[in-house]
Structure formats: C-alpha cells, structure tokens
Design a protein that fits this description.
The protein has 323 residues and is α/β, with parallel strands linked by helices. It has one domain: Arginase, Chain A (3-Layer(aba) Sandwich). 34% of the residues lie in helices and 17% in strands. The chain is built from 9 helices and 11 strands.
Amino acid sequence: MEDVEDLPELSFAGVQTFLKAEQATVEDIDDGADVGVLGVPFDGAVSRQPGARFGPAAIREASAWYAYLGGYKGGVLNVETGQTVDYGDIEIRDCGDVPTVPTSIERTRPQIEAAVELVAEQTFPLVLGGDHYVTYPSFLGYARSVDGPVGVVQIDAHSDTVASSTLYGEHFHGSPMARIDETDYGSYETHSMVGIRGYEGPEFADLVDDRDIDVRTAPEVHERGIEECVRDAVEHATDGTDSVYLTVDIDGVDPAYAPGTGTPEPGGLTSADLLEAMDVLGEYDEIGAMDLMEVAPKLDPTESTQRLAANAIVRFLEARFLG
C-alpha cells in the first residue's frame, strides 16, 4: 500500500476554523497562544436586515484562503508591506462559537461576556460577530480581565450611541457604545470613532462636544488619509487608559466594497483604507482585544464582504504578531 502524500490542505477542505487554527476550549487555551478566536452567531439586536448570525462561519471560511497561501512552502510575500509571512507562525486557537439564544439578548449577553473574559485571561481575544450589540458584552468581558480603564477605537459608519430607542429600548445594535460608557471601564472621553457618516440623531453633536468623543468622519478620512486618522484615534483612546479595545463594523467600508451588511451607508472607507488601517493598528501593543462585526454573507452573493473581513483581520494579526 502506498503512503498518502503529504500535500498542503486546500482552503475549502478540512475543518473551517479561523486561519485553519487548532481548536481549543475557552477554559483551556494552550500556554503561549497568541490569539483566541470566538464566534458569536447572534443578530437578535438588529434594527434593519438580519443575517449577521452567519458572519462568523463565513469569515472563518474566507480566512482559509490566507491560511493556504501563508502556509504554502513556508510563507507568502505581502506585496504591499514587502514582508514574507507564514501565518502558521502565529499561534492561534479557535474556541468555536459562544452559545447564543437567537430570541433573547438577555440570555445571550452573559454568555458572551463570560466567554470573552475567559479567553482574555489567557491570550488576545478575537471576536467574530454577529451584530454590533455583541461588542458591548465582549468589551465588558475583556475589560474585567484587565480590571482597569479601557479605551475604544471604533471603525464604523454609525456611532451606535443611542441611549434609548422607542422601538428597541436600551439594548440593540444602535446602543453598544452608550452601554460601554455606562460601565466602570469605558468612557466616551477615551472613545475614538473612524469612518462615521450619514445621519445621526440630533443629540449626537452635543454628545460629541460635551463628552469629548474623538470623531474622524469618512470625509475627513478621504481628505487626510486613513493612516493619520487612525493614529490620532489611537492617541486619543490611549490617553489615561490601561489598554484599548478595537471594534470594526464592516459597514464602515463603503457598500461598493462590502455590500453584505445589514445597515449599508454610502460614502464610506475603501477596502484599501480598511486594510491600511489594520496594518497601522497592528503596530500598537496597547490594543488588547479586537472584534469584527456585522458581516451578513447572505446579503452579498459575491462573497466579497466576508473575504474583505477575513483579509482585514489577517492583516491586523500579521502586523501585530509577525511585524
């Protein structure tokens, strides 16, 4: 009998963990692991189009292409950075999906918070959403592991600062930043937003002025460039904090590049802007946790949205752990 030839695993074969990483549990991540991945397949807090519950699986599947490229023959050249990288050199453990209750924010929230806290106590947590409300319990879980003030850098089309909605109450995907501000760990004074555009409630302007929120609108990004805006955002979020939580809503990118999201907003960042932002953000050790939210793959038959999301995360990890 002939031996089975040892060949690189194709992107569409095998178990679809993030970047083909080894599996682990939230309670037992290997010592020395760089990253612990958690999926949160929950979109019970959306106000427009559902579908982000399928985001974690789609992002994982899309990431397999980069695992194949980066592990093939010991690495791959990133033409934009000039660096040859082997993603196998990043010790990633995929902890699967947080158990969620599709019809209950109240029952799902503590599940997310506990899972992220467990991962954060062991390594860098990477959370795949899910609608953007998931950021609130994810932030809280991470912040409790740090037990100190945590700044926020938010790439997004919308501020998500709604204190309360007549229709949705205080807990929906338009409110997570308001909920974070109410915690013992977060504050608008150390919160930076990049890519904001479109329409907000009339109270948003007063909130920005009164609470010193750092807002870099999409037109400002187009004028000044993404790198300068991102560096300003990190500087603001690190002033007086112990660490920074990075949250990326894929709708921060223009729907021409990322249509698979529930609340698309024209006039946004380009795909190149997002990738450059990830390169820059990966330079900062102060960023202790990251999430990427609102990928709704069924709204994008081209699959471009989840591919961009996976690429953005890979670029952040590359800059952070292989740079």
